[in-house]
Specification:
This protein has about 180 residues and is an alpha+beta fold. The protein has 4 helices and 7 strands, in the order αβαββαββαββ.
Length: about 180
């Protein structure tokens, strides 16, 4: 009985956490996105997201690979909102490959903009789903809310940037390109 009780409590706890996340995402999406823009080092924000994802990736047998230009990458931005976006992209990549795989995060920049890419080795997004990938409520994931990608895109666009799905030229997996204007440009 104790073992069964523990399983029931664990299942209930997981359900409560999922509902809590859905409610937070929905309220974030339905309310106006407020930004507290100030000089922000995106490399530090991304490093925090990657550090948080590392243990989860290791537990799921997912290699977390990074190819990042040295920071700082300064933008006028809201660090917590950017972190929310990065966390969502990393979570999606982990959920796309439950039996192990790889996530590859790259960062490149020029004098005007920063380009981040989040790619995974999962099954990718079927061509028929790519057009509505960023539409509120659209999802192909079991238990998905259809809120994460639209909210992430909204956050990036509120920073004057863009978040798009990229075709990987025949390679498997999904890839998202996030572009932000660097400060002073």
């Amino acid at each position: 009985p104790d073992d069964q009780q523990q399983k029931s409590i664990s299942a209930l706890d997981a359900s409560v956490r999922q509902v809590d996340r859905l409610v937070r995402e929905f309220s974030d999406y339905s309310a106006p996105v407020t930004m507290e823009k100030k000089p922000t080092d995106v490399s530090a924000v991304l490093a925090t997201s990657l550090e948080a994802a590392a243990a989860q990736c290791a537990a799921k047998n997912i290699a977390l690979e990074k190819d990042l230009v040295p920071g700082p990458w300064l933008v006028q931005g809201d660090g917590p909102r950017l972190r929310q976006c990065f966390d969502n992209l990393l979570r999606n990549a982990m959920e796309a490959q439950p039996n192990g795989g790889a996530i590859h995060v790259t960062a490149s920049k020029n004098t005007k903009e920063l380009v981040l890419r989040f790619a995974d080795s999962g099954p990718g997004v079927a061509p028929e789903h790519r057009t509505d990938l960023f539409e509120f409520g659209k999802t192909t994931k079991v238990g998905g809310s259809g809120i994460g990608l639209p909210l992430s895109q909204l956050i990036v666009e509120s920073h004057g940037g863009s978040l798009v799905y990229e075709d990987q030229n025949g390679a498997t997996g999904a890839s998202f390109r996030l572009t932000l204007a660097l400060e002073g440009n």
